[in-house]
Design brief:
The protein is α+β, with helices and mostly antiparallel strands. Its main location: membrane.
Length: about 900
Amino acid sequence: MGFGNILLIPTTLLILLEGSTNWAMEKKKFTLPSSNCSKNCGDVQIEYPFGIGSDCSYAAGFNLICVNDSNPPRLLLGNGTVQLRNFDMETSRIYIESPYVTLNADGQSNITLINLKNLPFSLRHDNLYVAGCNVTANIIDVVTNGTEGACSAICSATNTSIIPFDNGYCILHWNYMKFNQNLWAIHLTKLNKNSTTGTIAFMHDEHIDYDAFKRFIEDRNTTGMMASLTWYINDYSTCEEAIRRNNTYACRSNKSKCYNVSQQYPEAIIFYSSEIIRSSYSSEIIGYKCRCSSHYVGNPYLPDGCQLGDDSKSLLYILISCKNKNFTFTPGKDCQTKCGNVTIFFPFGLKQGCYRDEYNFALTCNETSHLLYWAGDYGVVSKISLQEGQLEYSVSYDFDKETTVINWVVDRQSCKDAATDNATFACIHEHSSCLDVKNKDNQNEGYRCICKDGYDGNPYLHGGCQDIDECNSSTKVCTGICVNSAGNFSCICPLGTSGDPYRGECIYHKRNALLLGVILGASIGTSLLLFCVIMVIVCKKWKQRKQQKIRKRNFLRNHHLLLQQLSSTSDHVEERTNVFSLEEIEKATNNFDETRVLGKGGHGTVYKGILSDQRVVAIKKSKIIKTSEIDQFINEVAILSQINHRNVVKLLGCCLETEVPLLVYEFISNGTLSDHLHVPQGESKLSWDDRLRIATESAGALAYLHSAASMSVFHRDVKSSNILIDETFKAKVSDFGASKFIPLDQTHIVTAIHGTFGYIDPEYYQTSRLTEKSDVYSFGIILLELLVGKKPIYSTENGLQQNLAMNFLQAIRENTLLDLVEDCVLQEGTKQEVLEISSLIEICLNLKGAKRPTMKEVEYKLQSMRKVRMKKKGVRILEGNEDAECLLSVSSHSSSQMVDEISQGNSRNYSFEKELMWSQNCPR
């Protein structure tokens, strides 16, 4: 063969790959063994998935043969070359008769050691033992003729043993060989052809001890050697994949678990004297295996095959050592209480001063993996329970991980004996007690500490047991009236009921039910009423506080705006501006009652109010909350605060606590000029004398605004409804919300169009240039209303709207003016007066503002007309002012001359130099 003496052996990798090809894929449906299947072969009990015959095993790889060539019969694997001795369902192993081969001194041997081709087994727990003098064992790849592993057995020349054992041997570990899918052979070679010793090579389980080796080598004909094979479900699927294929899933017991099986492939192995000192591996999942769950034993491959084991019904108690007497009763403050997700309770701990004693309760925390270890690195702790006295840990094996729950005790003494030594007794803290722990045979295994009834916590610490508040616990322990106490609680039925409140059986007495209902109803009703009253008070207080905040905010903002306006005009005006509180205004207007409304306009409503000092006032309130409205109201305050004229409505003060300020004026009781001129379904009772006087007073007020105030003020909204009439029919110009301050050195400003249709100056409307002549045009419309008695825009009997100014100018051109004048004017006035006032109106309505007179000129013209009329009637004008006295002292000649000149029709050559010279002697 070219290899000397060769022992053929398929390797682990070869078995796994070829086995999956030949048998696993043929399994189409899961088949349970029938009752006719053999349960035994000789003294070996057969365990499923193995079985004799294809109908009794899970798959072909698990078929067995029972051979009756000896007594008792022998149980062989399916290929008939390997004898099976026992099953271990816990570790998924079968134990077989160890195969061996010997090489005599002449070096002749050609016996196959073992053939596992196409079988689902692994040799990972076996070693190849070679004993002999000066012999080398090589594992050869039959295909490539390469050596993948070797070991040599060397012994002294004086050794005369047929097969040396003590010093002539070497071991090859199957688990550390790098196998592939090729066929492997063992090549034994003698290094000394003159050696008289023989050589033996055999497989053995890695846990076989020294004495078993010696007995087998010395008398292998009567003494057997055990090897083991590990099985798995060889379909190259993970547990997750296998569970989804229910028709072939092998773990049939509902108390079984599935574990992935991985094959390790060594990447680097270093041996020294047959010992591995360093290795590295790669691995892959090649199948799965089944095991019973923790505390269950049996066959996981059969339904109900896993049963609760006897050992799980008893407790497992641990106490590693009782040697140490240096106990810690109070852990340090720096003790770590967490490792990963596991909470560490005293008496357990991680370092000196944190555990009760080192030998029993010391744990180790891996700071890298955050795993908690018990007993060095024996198992990974997943839970510690003080209440149950249990510790849960898991140990990793080759293929899987096993989780175990153990019960622990503090010491191997009874409570009675332990309590005699206070130096070591653990249950000495307040509210803790000692518990004797017994096994299933009622034998004492030791003691541990628990909190007394009604307490919970750590009984091993001072103050560790805390009172349980049963009344507030999530578990309802009392359906009656519950009162908690230290370590206990009381529970009684409510008044009017009886029974067992611990069971929820408090029953009402029928005779007391009505009375209890009345009492309960009255209590609930009183409580609801009290609650409602409190809520009303709270809401009222909340609203008051909110209103106060709003009022304060509005006041600060409006006061700031007002200061800005006033600071640009006068430094002393603010001192003359009264500020009223909103509370005072609300009281004066009866909380803005509708019966107090004097009038409503486009921008607001005017209310009648009575102040606390019994003064009657008019209060203007905006109904539109816009920035422009706020600006207009502030503007009006600023203007009226600086004007003191008998024919201008007096501003008494303002309220800044509302979003748009409230304006407080003197009360004018007789309505507006528009109300007296335009009487619905009737004639105006306003006489021609009153009309002339009102016109004169209004012209004087506007002239004062234009030229006599500290700064020129253009009214910007002159109309008959903005001229108030008091009880003596004196005129009062009002509504300065749209007015504008004009520096004395300026003649106009450019601003947005504002005013009332019919009164707006056409030139201002076209150019947006506001001048004092814009107010003159609007006043000319008022004079026209006084003369004709119609509104600027009026409707005819046919319902057609007419423009009064256009009709007036047309009547002038057509010489039909008298047809347009109101009858009462024609009856009370003279034709000369009508012509003079018509001429004044005509020049006031000139489309070019530069050709219109000033308000001062208009005022003097009206004063002259009124003086002439009063003189003819023989009435002296006594108004108690300097202007009136001056008018009376002027000669009739000069007055008549001025009237004649302004009345000269359309020549427009009239000059006011003479009148101005006259006015120098008559200061205003």
